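WARN no homologs supplied; continuing
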Amino acid sequence: MDVHGALASGYLKVLRRAPLASDSGPGPARLCAWGLANLAQKLEVAQLVSSPGSPDVWKQLVAFQRLLPRAGEAPAQEIAEAELHMKAMLALCAAQPESLSPRETAFLAEYLRGCAAAVEIRPTNAPATPDAYWLDETQGLPPTAALRRQPGQQVSLQFSCLALSRLAAGHLERLARGERPEAAGLPGQALLSDYRNVLTRSIERWQSPPKRQSNRRRNGHRVQVCTHLGPLWQQLRDQGDATQAEVELPASDWMVLNESASGYAVMHVSGELAGIVAGSAIGLRTAADKPWNICVVRWARSENPEHIELGLELLSPQAEAVRILRRGADGEQLPVPAFLLPPMPALGRVEALLTARGYFEPGEFTLMNESGGRLQIAECLAHQVAMHTACVEVFEFERSRG
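OK structure emitted
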């Protein structure tokens, strides 16, 4: 990040000192392209490590845009290259990369390096439509969705990713029809489900950014977080069974910054941090005698290795440890651990199961609940996936007989 940032600053300094093209070196459009390429790399690395990045990134992006020659004053290819880097940065930010896993971020950045030209840069005084984003360089903040907050007086840049969302939707349709990625101008990794999943989620955010559904209450109480679902599953399974020794959980301490009915924003205080990525599931409890809430990490921010903040979506205020049996191709029953989530009528959700990603299949399966020294078996029918992330999936089901 520091190297790419220093290079971008260097190119910007050269442009400001010698803004006119010369016969002895690269012209301003080429310098803008090189500077924006380094700025884009700095932003991409920041997102890969869940860093909020430097406010200078967005101030420098606007500075490069203002120094970029207009069409006819420089080679069109050089102008297009500079604009592509700039648009890729804007589209990546609009896709809310803090909610993506590093793998998904890398896939999206790769896609934008080839397709971000579809991003539309609008006049700063243009009416703000629901799909618009705007940037105020004086604040040094990343682009803001007009749907969340209308632009003020000091709009430095306004853009829309609506055309990009349509292009990406077209690419997904072609892949769904069985076309090879190369025929659509995409890399071979576009066949991977993670690649298509991140495009699907980005399309939604480019078309219409999500709005906050509930008010947040500021808070300051401590909670415990367990990022290792294996030991948590074992503890839930053994609770109430006097013959089982209590499992020691690798839990860490966190401070609740704010909370709402749908989840929490928390800051790390002490303890282990391993296993946290956007899309992973964790356990959270407010006290040692309280049940474990099951949450999914929606976003992660880290200014340094000692400081990390998480946005957590509450999946269920409690859960049970169960096993799922589904007959394999060879007829063998393959047990898989899962968390049983009770019905939540307020959200319109029936009973559901949280499993590692890739296990869901519609159809019949056997549910085994071995908690409390008792074994309960029920034949069930899996319905639809209620949630799907890079790490886990939640699917609804109904019991046919038990």
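The helical segments are 2-17, 28-48, 56-67, 76-94, 102-115, 162-176, 193-207, 229-238.
OK
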